[in-house]
Design goal:
With 98 residues, the chain is mainly alpha-helical. It has 4 helices and 2 strands. A two-stranded antiparallel sheet has the order 1-2. The protein is globular.
């Protein structure tokens, strides 16, 4: 996961959390998070990069719609990232001594 951009990590996280992760659903979630519209020219090449890296699989929902699923490798990468982040963030919510 260390070689992904922040945007690609966000795509991976969003894809993991959606029930039916097709391109427009992923785009809508990212639009909300980034508070501005993500254009197709940015989203789809990054989805393809994640497929090529083996973190997502791409399938057809219908003739016009692709659906993306996170691979086992992608899930392992997410878990490894969360463990790495938690070592730096575990004290963030700890109460401060008086």
């Amino acid at each position: 996961m260390h070689d992904l951009t922040g945007f690609q990590r966000d795509i991976l996280y969003v894809t993991t959390g959606l029930e039916e992760p097709h391109g427009l659903a992923i785009k809508d979630e990212l639009d909300d998070y980034y508070e501005h519209e993500i254009n197709h020219g940015r989203l789809y090449p990054n989805l393809d990069d994640l497929v090529n890296k083996g973190l997502l699989e791409k399938g057809e929902l219908d003739k016009r719609t692709n659906v993306y699923t996170v691979t086992q490798r992608g899930l392992r990468e997410i878990e490894a990232r969360r463990e790495w982040e938690s070592q730096y963030l575990e004290d963030v919510n700890a109460p401060t001594p008086s």
